[in-house]
Amino acid sequence: MKIADPKSVPIVLMGFGNVGRAFFRLVHEKKDLCRARYGLDPCFPAVFEVGGALIPAKSFLEPADAPESSVSDLVRNPFWNPAGKLEDVLASHSPGVLVECTPTNLKTGEPGLAHIRKALEMGWHVATASKGPLVVDFKGLKALALDKGVSLKFSGAAAAALPTLDVGLYSLAGTQVSAVEGVLNGTTNFILTRMGEGGSYAAALQEARERGIAEPDPSLDVGGWDTAAKIMLIANAVMGTEFTLADLSVTGITDLSPALLVRAESEGKILKLLGTVRRNEGTYSAGVAPTLLDPSHPLAAVNGTAKGVTFWTDTMGQVTVTGGKSDPRGAAAALLKDIINIFPRD
Amino acid sequence: MKIADPKSVPIVLMGFGNVGRAFFRLVHEKKDLCRARYGLDPCFPAVFEVGGALIPAKSFLEPADAPESSVSDLVRNPFWNPAGKLEDVLASHSPGVLVECTPTNLKTGEPGLAHIRKALEMGWHVATASKGPLVVDFKGLKALALDKGVSLKFSGAAAAALPTLDVGLYSLAGTQVSAVEGVLNGTTNFILTRMGEGGSYAAALQEARERGIAEPDPSLDVGGWDTAAKIMLIANAVMGTEFTLADLSVTGITDLSPALLVRAESEGKILKLLGTVRRNEGTYSAGVAPTLLDPSHPLAAVNGTAKGVTFWTDTMGQVTVTGGKSDPRGAAAALLKDIINIFPRD
Fold first, then answer.
1. Which of A41, A152, A153, A161 shows a CA-CA span of 20 to 30 A to A131?
2. Which listed residue (B230, B269, B325, B337) is catalytic?
3. Which of A33, A310, A322 is facing B298, going by the closest CB pair?
4. pLDDT band for position A2 (50/70/90)?
């Protein structure tokens, strides 16, 4: 038995917002563990943001090289290069992993889509926390990755630290998944939990804003679109469907029927915003809607900002996974997990 | 993009009891799916049982070659060879996977331990549903597998269709797991669920026997030893501990304190037989005991014969997985899952 030197894994980080910064910090914090337990040595040849990139004169960025607490500080960093080009950086290092953390756009997929295409074309693996590129062109990106013999990983885009894709693809390998149900959005689940306790929608949303749970513009969350994007990505990856967002019937929680709340109360049910995909005689349907769950449903006890997903299979019965931190550090941990799993070991 | 021919994967099956037979059937049922989705072509050069083996004159066994419904019928099978030797079969095929399904012995690990050692030494991967060999010599088997560059998989031995190891090793890669808690035995959980509904221990055990949930001799279950073996395997695999069964403090449910049942009732808690491992300032402790859970605990709603496990981590918070069928088909599906995951693909 011999211990090989750790394998150097260049990481080009796209986006230095909350998740990107948490990821940059986490990788350095976990460097020793990556080397000792997984034989990997992750390092950063560049970090890109709007208008340029941090590109060090030496080989790789150290933690102290990017101490910035906000994107606007980057331009004062000595390594900031407004002329930095992704293509040049990718070409000047042996292929590693492009990590995509730019803001997501569910309609165009940009800017992440262009970054990911470029990286895959140049033989780099990709781990993305951004949903947009996958919502817009999962099929094309997957085919490109397969053609180039590299990995396209996106745990960070499909509920992050909650391992939806790992369980669906790895733990359920060899099964036929007949349905997936998910409580996939922390903001709406927090609001519905408060409403189940007797609060109003407006008060619950206000509290979610004050506690930093809801984004300043929560419309993608409360409108059901964040849940829709996630359940669609899970379905396309695990069940082999080719859904686009337009194929999904999506109802959010902004206009909850009072009758639904009354029924939940009188029938002892629990109201959740549920993303679902079902297979029925070879055809698939997917959607998002406020749904009354029986208290014995495996997702009924997923409360507050927690998330969960249930897979229904032919040979393993139902398998449910819940939990996983929803904060930037949890998303960063999901990205690191994906990178570690790109390089198999025993 | 090109589709390669499926890779032939010889499987030598040890043990043709309930799980072994379910596995043999399942693999044939899933043959097309294995070829199309995973590029793998699993086939059986031999099936071993006490006193011999089915070894076909042609290359591989077809489903109709092993129609036996009980082990005692095997001796009348035309392919039955009382002189069949494992070493000879392993040597006469290119290395594949040895699948270990013989009855488990938590003290000696035999006969599985000898089978697994032999297979690993001869460069075969191993997937085992039997806990005994791992309880007795996990460290030695793991080192041998590493030395030979092959995989040692044991989902089937650590709660089967409930993906405890996948989640701990794959989905939580890069985290530090500080504690694991598990409801890992269906028989005891069924009994405690009934007792929570007001039934007596004796009546619940009787019902479990009548419904085929409890084994004729349920002492390993109700004594807590099945749970102990599983939580120990999870800890040793995921947390890198080197526990033996003797290191665990194990209390089963045969002598439940009436005070515990009264407290559960009066405090609104839920009684579970919990396997636990905890890390505390670099040292680890593990054990099994009847435990009162708060209703908000992620395992509190795991009822009846269902199982579940919760991992507490540094970066992803808690992640809980529940469900997974406990029958022989579920165990067979876990073995097939492990085999598929031995051969990575994208």
1. A41
2. B230
3. A322
4. very low
Partners of A313 in beta bridges: A177
- Tell me the Ramachandran region of residue B12: left when phi exceeds 0, alpha when psi lies from -120 to 50, beta otherwise: beta
Q: Which of A343, A342, A336 is nearest to A101 (CA)?
A: A336
Q: Which residue has the tokens 């950086």?
A: A89
**Predicted local confidence at residue B1, as pLDDT:** 39
pLDDT (tens digit per residue) in A178-209: 999 999 999 999 999 999 888 999 999 999 99
**This prediction's pTM:** 0.95
Measure CB to CB from residue A317 to each of B163, B303, B323 and give the nearest one: B323
Residue of B nearest to A144 (CA): B1
B 183-202 residues with CB < 8 A to A? none
Residues of chain B with C-beta less than 8 angstroms from the C-beta of A336: 173-174
Which of B162, B316, B337 shows the shortest C-beta gap to A174? B337
**Domain boundaries A165-322, CATH class:** alpha beta
Task: Tell me the backbone φ, ψ of residue A344, rounded to 5 degrees.
Answer: -65, 150
| Residue B227: how many other CB atoms lie within 10 Å | 30
- What residues in A contact B138, CB-CB < 8 Å? none
List alpha helices for chain B, DSSP H. Answer: 18-29, 31-38, 86-91, 112-121, 132-148, 164-166, 186-196, 201-210, 219-222, 225-238, 258-267, 328-342
Fold of the domain spanning B7-161+328-342:
Rossmann fold (3.40.50)
Residue pLDDT, tens place only, A144-164? 999 999 999 999 999 889 999
Using left for φ > 0, alpha for ψ between -120 and 50, and beta otherwise, residue A186 falls in: alpha
Any idea which residue has 């496990």 for tokens?
Answer: B309
User: Are residues B93 and B11 in contact, defined by beta-carbon separation less than 8 angstroms?
Assistant: no
Tokens of B201: 């221990």
Inform me whether the C-beta atom of residue B26 falls under 8 Å from chain A C-beta atoms.
yes
What is the C-alpha separation between B80 and B77, in angstroms, rounded?
A: 5
A336 touching chain B per CB within 8 A = yes
Whether A230 is catalytic: yes
Tokens of A260: 């639904």
At A261, is the pLDDT very low, low, confident or very high (cuts 50, 70, 90)? Answer: confident
Domain boundaries, chain A: 7-161+328-342, 165-322
pLDDT tens per residue, range B122-166: 999 999 999 999 999 999 999 999 999 999 999 999 998 999 999
* Percent share of chain A, pLDDT over 70: 99
Q: Please, how many CA atoms are within 13 Å of residue B1, restricted to the half-sphere of its CB? A: 9
